[in-house]
Write a structure and sequence with these properties.
21 strands, Nucleotidyltransferase, domain 5
């Protein structure tokens, strides 16, 4: 079989990578060509994304690919959801896009979420930073900017636009906005009218795996690449990761473990009813018309922020050292509700955790090991509750939990997840998002036949570790404690 190469531009909240993926004889191999840090910029009391810098970093990665003189067939960009860029025919960017943790949406969210139409139209989980509330904030706070905007594109789609000159909203990413109707697979005209959003800025929606066109002449000349096609694979990183889950059958759930913990199941169609709304689950679009039925849980962000806080104090701990200290710490010393609003915002995370524990009558963690153990066990118990809710909603049992993403490297967290949920955990691949990005490109170009074949390639290409549950009475008691914790 001929080998084919593809470029994945995989950008997360903390870092971005340009990865060269090679598909040969049913196996996929990766080479990380370029990596760069990412994160919000604080400007004038707001949090923004420096998208121009991200674009420049990606072009640096493309130049490094060109230097290898390996002919790549295509490239595609994936990022987080909800955030977006406003632009028009004269200006490629009207302002630096807001970061989803910016607090400007707090008041619009509180007012808008009372509208029952939102969930019935979208089936999307209520979260303060969804695109809907950001656009409402724009109408209330930056209306003059919206008047001169021709279009908005979510971040990955915008970067694909910069590469190809073709601006389209890829379906998996559009579905994160809380403005997409998963039944009609179009923008919700009812919500656009209700919240008086300018209809002209909404781009055309295209399915996952859409060929956008050739790499622009400008970028080709600047990077030295030629003959490259730009593909909208799954522009949403979780959509790409779920496509690459190495699972078979239907008794499995997935957990994309990283800055966020996204836990759910793959369904053939959206599930929108009062029970789903009550449990605050979400229906996001997956590859091939599937539905990613899931819940967002604040994930390793809490530990990432704590690590940054310790570094500012002169304690430069690596993640392997943090995991070791957590393994040595006393089990169930204290627990937190990871989705408490205070933990969504950056800065002073150890102090926030300590305050939460004191306010709920628990001892505050005093060491990095105690704090990390608290975070790990709290996340594991969050997974337990989410899986119970999923089983109740879909009416069938789940016996396997596939954990993918950066968090799947953390053996302690994987074992705690198995213990808390009582399910066998399958960990890996770490690079699930890049796998999905690359292999959906392969599907789009006709180098793979279908989603089943894609997942077979993943199973053949990457080691998957198993963790068996070690249940104990202590976990049952901890589950009762955790269930009683408030979202302070």
């Amino acid at each position: 079989m001929a080998n084919h190469c593809y470029i994945a531009c995989d950008i997360g909240a903390d870092s971005g990578r340009v990865i060269l993926g090679t598909l040969e004889s049913g196996r996929l191999t990766f080479e990380e060509v370029h990596r760069f840090p990412n994160g919000p910029a604080k400007i004038g009391g707001s949090l923004r994304w420096d998208v121009i810098r991200i674009f420049e970093e990606l072009k640096t990665g493309l130049r490094k690919v060109a230097e290898k003189k390996i002919p790549a067939a295509s490239l595609s960009v994936d990022t987080w959801g909800v955030d977006y860029v406003l632009f028009n025919g004269r200006q490629p960017m009207l302002s630096l896009p807001y970061h989803y943790r910016d607090t400007r949406t707090d008041k619009p969210y509180a007012a808008a979420r009372k509208n029952e139409l939102i969930f019935s139209e979208t089936g999307i989980q209520f979260m303060t930073f969804n695109t809907l509330y950001q656009l409402i904030a724009d109408t209330e706070q930056d209306g003059d900017l919206l008047k001169i905007a021709d279009r908005f594109l979510n971040i990955a789609d915008y970067l694909n636009f910069l590469f190809s000159g073709v601006g389209r909203a890829e379906e998996s990413l559009a579905s994160t906005t809380q403005l997409y109707n998963p039944k009609t697979r179009t923008w919700s005209e009812a919500l656009i009218r209700t919240f008086k959003l300018p209809r002209n800025i909404f781009p055309q929606i295209v399915p996952s795996g859409t060929r956008l066109g050739a790499l622009s002449a400008e970028v080709a000349a600047e990077t030295g690449l030629s003959g490259i096609e730009v593909v909208a694979s799954c522009s949403h990183d979780t959509g790409a990761a779920v496509a690459a889950i190495p699972a078979q059958g239907d008794d499995w759930a997935y957990l994309s473990s990283g800055t966020w913990s996204l836990i759910g199941v793959e369904l053939p169609a959206p599930l929108i009813n009062e029970t789903v709304r009550k449990f605050n689950f979400t229906n996001e679009a997956g590859y091939g018309g599937t539905t990613r039925f899931l819940k967002n849980i604040v994930g390793l962000w809490i530990l990432q922020e704590s690590k940054r806080a310790w570094a500012r104090e002169g304690k430069n701990l690596g993640y392997a050292e943090i995991e070791r200290l957590a393994a040595e710490a006393e089990p169930f010393y204290s627990l937190i509700n990871p989705n408490a609003p205070r933990f969504l915002q950056p800065d002073a995370m150890p102090e926030k955790i300590a305050a939460y524990c004191r306010e709920t009558g628990q001892p505050a963690p005093e060491t990095p090991g105690q704090l990390a153990r608290c975070v790990y066990e709290s996340l594991a118990l969050s997974y337990q509750g989410a899986l119970k809710s999923i089983e109740q909603i879909i009416g069938r049992s789940i016996s396997r939990l596939h954990i993918v993403g950066g968090g799947s490297k953390d053996e302690l967290l994987n074992q705690l997840a198995a213990n808390a949920t009582g399910r066998t955990v399958f960990a890996g691949p770490v690079e699930a998002t890049a796998c999905g990005n690359v292999l959906i490109q392969a599907l789009t170009l006709g180098h793979l036949p279908n989603l089943s074949a894609l997942r077979e390639v993943v199973r053949a290409s990457f080691p998957i570790r198993q963790f068996q549950p070690e249940q104990s009475e202590a976990w049952e008691q901890a589950s009762e404690r955790f269930a009683a914790l408030p979202a302070l």
